[in-house]
């Protein structure tokens, strides 16, 4: 690992925590073609989404992360990262946030040593609790639709209201606000926004979701 250590104040930085808690929508993109990934991301960004996750799959993912990271008004995350080598490549490409589908202790140690922000995934109550005990600030519940959707989030938070949950996997524009109402700190939304859609439609869908969220937060206060 040849990463430089970030400023110690950047460890799961206040800035990134605030971005997640304020914007509440993470656009998740899984594409093998970097040009298509960048097009989707730019449409989401122009629609008002400020956090973009590029799922790590091949060199095209790094190309997309590198290009999108030039935009200093957004946070770029590398998703589905499971190895230290993938972390290194993602951070050097400009990612400020790493999202892993597993609770991997080596990644946790690396995040603490080098000061990048880390989200890990969970499916069960026990996995979510263990991630929280290890000091993970945000826990992605995946695949949330298959696990029980909004009701599952609500039930978990009744038992453990201290968890900062981000449901992902099957979230769509119709139910994303319901997850926030149930207590989720943010939502990850992907193919339901962009699958088979062109730039204009992706931007329009993104605008609609952002507007729904803004309306809800204005009526109920930021949560």
Task: Describe this structure as you would to a colleague.
The protein is globular and about 40 Å long. The chain is built from 11 helices and 8 strands. 49% of the residues lie in helices and 16% in strands. The N and C termini lie far apart (38 Å). β5 (117-122), α6 and β6 form a beta-alpha-beta unit. An 8-stranded parallel β-sheet has the order 7-6-5-4-3-2-1-8, with helices on both faces. It has 223 residues and is α/β, with parallel strands linked by helices.
| pLDDT < 50 runs, ≥5 residues | none
Helix-strand topology string: HEHEHEHEHEHEHHEHEHH
- State the strand order across the main sheet: 7-6-5-4-3-2-1-8
Roughly how much helix do the residues carry, as a percent range? 40-55%
Could you state the oligomeric state of the chains shown? single chain
Radius of gyration: 16 Å
**What is the number of helices?**
11
Shape: globular
Mean pLDDT: 92
Q: Got a strand count?
A: 8
Beta percentage is 15-25%
Through-space gap between termini: 38 Å
Question: Could you give a short account of the major beta sheet?
Answer: 8 strands, parallel
Overall SS class: alpha/beta
Structural topology:
Blueprint: H1 14-23, E1 25-29, H2 34-46, E2 51-55, H3 59-68, E3 75-79, H4 84-93, E4 97-100, H5 105-114, E5 117-122, H6 125-133, E6 138-141, H7 144-147, H8 149-159, E7 165-167, H9 176-181, E8 187-189, H10 191-194, H11 199-220
Parallel strand pairs: 1-2, 1-8, 2-3, 3-4, 4-5, 5-6, 6-7
Helix pairs in contact: 2-3, 2-11, 3-4
Concise account of the structure shown:
The chain has 223 residues and is an alpha/beta fold. It is 49% helix and 16% strand. The model has no long low-confidence stretch (mean pLDDT 92).
